[in-house]
Amino acid sequence: MKPKERMAIPRQKAPELPVEVRIKNFDEVTGGFDEKTAVTEAERCLQCKKPGCVQGCPLSNNIPEFIRLLREGEVEKAYWTVRETSPMPAICSRVCPHEMQCEGGCIRGKKGDPVAIGMLERYLVDWMVANNKNLMTPCAMPKNRKVAIVGSGPAGMAAAYYLAHDGYSCTIFDSLPVLGGMLTVGIPPYRLPRDIIKAEFDALKSCGVEIIPGVTIGEDKSLQDLKDEGFEAVLLGVGAHVSRKLGIPGEDLEGVLHGVDYLRKVNLGEKLDIGKRVVVVGGGNVAIDVARTALRMGSTDVFILYRRTKKEMPAAQAEIHHLEEEGVNIEFLAAPVEIHGENGKLTKIECIRMELGECDMSGRCRPVPIEGSNFMIEADAIIPAISQSVGHTAEQGMEIELEKWGTYKVNPDTLQTSVPWIFAAGDDVLGPQTVAKAAFQAKQAAKSIAAYLEGNL
Ligand SMILES: Cc1cc2nc3c(=O)[nH]c(=O)nc-3n(C[C@H](O)[C@H](O)[C@H](O)COP(=O)(O)OP(=O)(O)OC[C@H]3O[C@@H](n4cnc5c(N)ncnc54)[C@H](O)[C@@H]3O)c2cc1C
Fold first, then answer.
1. pLDDT band of 317, cuts 50, 70, 90
2. Which residues does ligand 1 sit against, CB inside 6 Å?
3. Which of 19, 167, 264, 361 gives 20 to 30 Å between its CA and that of 147?
4. What is the Cα–Cα distance from 161 to 164, expressed in whole angstroms?
5. Topology at the third CATH level for domain 146-241+390-453
């Protein structure tokens, strides 16, 4: 095909559940490409010599190569090309913020729509599943050297994947009764169906990885206990699960919930009724997931308060689009200043209008309150979803150095903490980030753990 012909092909659209259907359930909203659509979309790729998509991908997936194979009908080979660098393509293809990563680097995005790289990657996985193919290569023969992994989120999963492939015996401990960390108790099933996560764990188990849910390290057993049980190294992948508070009066009233706590409860199956009128605070993925979840749980009047403008919202564009389609309004340039209540229960939220002030080097402007612009909103619930920090149960009884923000202090090259046999990766090092970034860091940590165990670190 001539480059001009490729340029003329428009970005292909994925099927989506109609709004009136999807807001009544947690079914996956976006469907996959069929073969014809996938090949047409793959034809749009210009096979750049210096591919910006690879640079944008935290895992450096060989995107042009898998797209080339896909359009030549070599779907299985294309899948294994991705799998070489990605420990969880089924998950990343669905939840990575592609526009900020691979698709953000796609040259076609400069003058139009980038290639739908995420959807193409998803097509490969869907094809493998539909054709009953194994999603993981066999693991190496076990060496009888034990590594403990604390946390079953993307960091823990990725570390186990790489260590098991190197022949180390891994055991993953998680305090929750379910596996997957924020993939399962954060990201809602309408974006990431649970059978996708289960398939990854089944594959890990088939590689000999032992998985023990319902055990809190630091409470049920300590890091030292793990060492005494023969684990020669530990990876901490405990994430960032502690909700940041707004720090305004009234935050202890009934009706105030915090973003990841609310999502965790709903995702663990609690039938929460938080009332009809719900105000969510924040502009990231978590705020949007909270608002869309509240709608599906029966709240009818849900809106978001965000202190900047749409341009500055850190959430993925596709998520903002889905949110608006589902009828959630965003009140821009507004922030809560006090939560008012009666008899211990929230009744009204006092807010203030903001304007954008000085901008930093990156062009992000500081929101400044406009004096005297206060206004009231009546609400049944308010859910701040403004960030999370790291909880520190795991290292109870052990001194591990921390950074100023409470993340683990690690050697940036090796991911080793101040205790030589303990490594850390993911949100507990980076702060709240993304699945692919957590997975990439865990891959580096797994390499360092192997080097440490072999006496090379
Ligand atoms: C609502 C929401 C939506 C998101 N959407 C996206 C998205 O669309 N795309 C994207 O790329 N990223 C998204 N993220 C971010 C992404 O989920 C995280 O960056 C990623 O999960 C971090 O992985 P992790 O393994 O470091 O930690 P986590 O996934 O947080 O896993 C940590 C695990 O450690 C366990 N744990 C903690 N302490 C202990 C202990 N003491 N003992 C035993 N177990 C313990 C926890 O129970 C948890 O299961 C989202 C996050 C949230 C909250």
1. confident
2. 95-97, 150-156, 173-176, 181-183, 186-187, 216-218, 237-239, 241, 260, 263, 285-286, 289, 391, 393-394, 426-428, 432-436, 438
3. 264
4. 5
5. FAD/NAD(P)-binding domain (3.50.50)
